[in-house]
Fold this sequence. Notes:
nucleotide-binding, 2 domains, 6-stranded mixed sheet, transmembrane, 15 helices, GI Alpha 1, domain 2-like, single chain, globular, G protein-coupled receptor binding, palmitate, alpha/beta, Rossmann fold
Amino acid sequence: MGSLCTAGAGTAADQKVAKDIEKNLIRVEKVDKKENKLLLLGTGSSGKSTLFKGLRLVNGSTFDTKEQIDTRHVIRSNIVAAIMTLLQKSQMLYEKDPEQFGDCQVNINDQNIVKAIQVVVSFADESFNDDANMPPTRLEALGNSVSSLWLLPALQQTYENRQNRFSFLDNMEHYFGKVQEIMKLDYIPSDEDVLKSRIRTTGVIEMIYEKDDNIFKICDVGGQRSERKKWIHSFEHVAAVIFVTALNHYSCVLFEDETRNAMHEAMELFDDICNSKWFRKSGNCNFLFFFMYAHPLHFACGLLHVFICIWRNAMYCLNRDDIAGWEGDQWNSTLDYVTKPNVQYTDDPDFLPCYQAALEFILDQFLKINKDPEKTVYHHVTCATDSNSVEYVFWDVQNFVIRANLKRGGLMV
């Protein structure tokens, strides 16, 4: 009997262990297979949509023919809009201060310049949706006209003086430099062209992929002010918020409001998101990530100008109750940014220390906005058009989310 009782007890124990293992495996499967929602947030032109497209490439997706053709339409439209902006702003700057911006005035007595402008203006209302049926000579004429106008010293000076004075699309130098190729009838955008294209995000764009048995759904939502009221519908069941801001916004103005510094806007928005009731220990969001978007050549800045930009906004972001007395939206742009044409910052031995100091200063101002001492804000500095950088930082994002799931499932301390 004793041996039978012992055997029976052993069998019961074995069965309990087996059941525990089975339950644990079920829990692991549930944790592994749970869809992890990652929300991309940021102001307009922050680089979040570029990051979104970069993640697609990193995860093995490609841009199909329809996307390439749609992007071609947008690139061509943006080129026309951008060169017309430079023409308009060149005159605006000259009229504002002929002495300071005398070099920005376009010589309209030059008939070749006038003819080039007329060609561009003839495309002002063109969507390019039917560009495949356009006469090749008409498109080529546009490419030649834009190329000649872009090389005008007056427009080059206007472009150099854009900071904190008027909004201008990013990466237009890239497209202006190959505009004659872009205006060929058979032009198909490369991956780089698609990544650098500026397409305003409206609504929510989603991408789902599986990584090591973990499902990730990345949601890119529009960053313009008019789009932010829709964000509330995306805040439920979020595993991580990826907030993106552009480092070069210290010297940029908003597309929606050219009296408003773009980095000021990003800091205020980060305050709203980071300290939102939706992400306060409610289980709605486990991690809040903060990507600082950098261009490949860093951001060419004088350290003083970054300090001025942040100093005027720091107390506002840290003390929202003082909003009535804050007048930081109205600033003298000539004090915020002093143009230094033709300066190669990267050739200066003091550039890297200056860059690092400015970077750490800006990062510190954002991190101070977090009012919850128990909330960790993970941060990365990356370039959204560099696939290696995107892959590296997103590997960290995946790891953090997976570890959070394991902890929540009781499988990790």
